[in-house]
Amino acid sequence: MQRTRGKVFGVVVAIAATGLLAACGGNDSTASSTPTLTRTTAATQPPAASSTSADPGQQAPAPAPAPAPEQPPAETVAPERPQPIDTPPPADTSKLTDKDKKYLDSLKQQGVTPSTPDIALSVANYVCQGTASGASDQDLMTFVTAMAGSDPSFDPAKMPVEKAGQVYISAAKQNYCK
To answer: What is the mean pLDDT of residues 19-37?
Structure first.
């Protein structure tokens, strides 16, 4: 009986602790406002003279004006501008195999021009390995669209990234994964 009470008590304490911890915060560590360095009037005024002063006609001295809060000097900052992207050097196409060239030509015919053959060939290798291991077309599509969209030469105004992903997958399956 004593043992059961101890277990029940332990469970109740654990549940209470969990509830208290959950109620204590929402894991929000951001400040909601910027603190200021201002003084309250109580801090800037001297204490009031007591009513039991020896000279009732004596007045308390006038409070000193509160000093203005210090403000950091305003800095003139130029607006941030994006840096230009360095274009990669032209790829050495002499090291490409006939299979590589056929795959790259297929991409180009369908409107996809990768910035370097390495990017396109990495995508093709991924598609071939994923297909061989039984990955679903949806899984392939998720990663291929991410890779296609991260290519510096990809322009979403010319083609949606999903379409580019489909082009990469179909070109790889037809021309590279053989």
So the answer is: 54
Using the CB atoms, write b or e for 46-79: b if 16+ within 10 Å.
eeeeeeeeeeeeeeeeeeeeeeeeeeeeeeeeee
Q: Give me the DSSP letters along 116-164.
A: SHHHHHHHHHHHHHHHHTT--HHHHHHHHHHHHHTSTT--TTTS-HHHH
pLDDT tens per residue across span 102-124: 999 999 999 999 999 999 999 99
- The 8-class DSSP code of residue 95 comes to G
Whole-model pTM above 0.90?
A: no
Q: Name the CA dihedral angle for 70, 76, 80, 83, rounded to a multiple of 10 degrees.
A: -130
